[in-house]
Design brief:
The chain has about 375 residues and is an alpha/beta fold. Helices cover about 50% and strands about 10% of the residues. It contains 16 helices and 8 strands. The chain has a 6-stranded parallel β-sheet, with helices on both faces. Strand 6 and strand 7 form a beta hairpin. Helix 4 packs across helix 5, helix 5 crosses helix 6 and helix 7 runs parallel beside helix 9.
Length: about 375
């Protein structure tokens, strides 16, 4: 027996952003986005476009960094609370960090202390808010526009938290591939590999189901075909559309399974070595693929639909693809000392996301030594 559920109303396609006024339907909104320092003039232009269509926001929160943390989110909630009129909906215009921050704002209702206490103690969930969210992703990788959780970082304590509430699924996701056309190569590659990781991690996952796996297969094949070509031709709107669709499908897949071992491994690299999330969660994928082969017939079948009948050759192809994109698959190249790698893998296996992995430690150790 299995089930699949995702309540987000998805509107996908070139020009989807132009439907924002109809979606908001006159509601007062808080806009969450990047400032010029983080996002450049492109986000100032998008903000003006949104205001022309839907009116000025009642609150503007644009202090969002790459990994939303306790300090920054405390200030974000203060800005939210300063709105002259009650906020009826939050518009998240940006990448995964912006959409995650919007979910924190939706739960905090202007008081980050409530969210922080819930993250640190697991208590007080009934006191959290549930302001509706309209998510407009400007990268192809996060999938946060169709999930009910947000990643929150305590950079001072070197900890990562997941804010997870069913009420945090966005009300609407406007996925407009044209909003990603100006992204530089580094962000395009990193976010695209995040989508690939979401897809593969939802397949070798104890929570996988036939719908999530079908979505993940399509997403992974699309990323593997489109991302290397797009990295060499960043202005190609057709490739941008394919990658946006792949990211969405991967999001719809892991919205039901959550992620697994590669993501669990990534958190240490991001917190302690500053490795961008998409790189941190994808460099280990060939190793994990080799380790999972033979663990589960349904998983093997899905991976063969992506990589072909020879999964060892598939792992080698994946490794070569990552290297071509400029991503080393060696842990030592990302700041991990060789003597610490096994301990880090053991720690990742014991974490919440690591426990979603269907593979065995012994197979992982063998893959690490290969």
């Amino acid at each position: 027996m299995w089930r699949y559920r995702n309540p987000v109303d998805v509107k996908f396609g070139a020009g989807a952003f132009e439907g924002i006024a109809d979606v908001l339907a006159g509601r007062t909104y808080c806009l969450v986005t990047y400032d010029d320092a983080n996002g450049g003039s492109v986000f100032a232009d998008m903000t003006r476009r949104l205001a022309r269509q839907a009116g000025e926001p009642a609150a503007l929160v644009r202090n969002i960094g790459p990994n939303p943390d306790f300090r920054g989110l405390t200030q974000s909630c203060r800005l939210y609370a300063e709105a002259a009129r009650p906020i009826e909906v939050i518009v998240a215009l940006g990448g995964g960090s912006v959409i995650d921050a919007a979910k924190v704002l939706a739960a905090a209702s202007g008081d980050f202390a409530r969210v922080r206490s819930y993250l640190e103690t697991g208590k007080g969930g009934e006191a959290l808010g549930a302001t509706p969210i309209v998510a407009i992703p400007t990268t192809s990788g996060t999938g946060s526009e169709v999930t009910s959780w947000a990643t929150v970082w305590d950079t001072d304590a070197k900890k990562k938290y997941s804010l997870s509430r069913p009420s945090l699924y966005p009300e609407v996701a406007l996925v407009d591939p044209l909003l990603t056309v100006g992204l530089p190569r580094g962000i395009t590659v990193s976010t695209g590999l995040d989508a690939l990781s979401h897809a593969l991690e939802s397949i070798w996952n104890v929570n996988a189901n036939p719908v999530s796996t079908a979505l993940a297969e399509r997403a992974a094949r699309e990323v593997l075909e489109a991302l290397p070509a797009l990295a060499d031709n960043l202005r190609d709107a057709g490739l941008r559309l394919r990658l946006s669709r792949a990211s969405l499908f991967a999001g719809l897949a892991f919205s039901n399974t959550k992620t697994s071992l590669a993501h669990s491994l990534s958190y240490h690299l991001t917190l302690h070595h500053g490795v961008p999330h998409g790189i941190a969660c994808s460099f280990s994928l060939p190793m994990v693929l080799r380790a999972v082969v033979g663990c589960d017939p349904a998983c093997d079948a899905a991976l063969r639909n992506i990589f072909g009948p020879d999964l060892e050759a598939g792992a080698a192809h994946l490794e070569a693809t990552l290297e071509k994109l400029g991503v080393s698959t060696r842990a030592t190249d990302h700041g991990i000392a060789a003597r610490d790698w096994t301990a880090l893998v053991d720690h990742a296996l014991s974490g919440e996301r690591g426990r979603n992995f269907i593979g065995r430690r012994e197979a992982l150790l063998a893959a690490m030594a290969a």
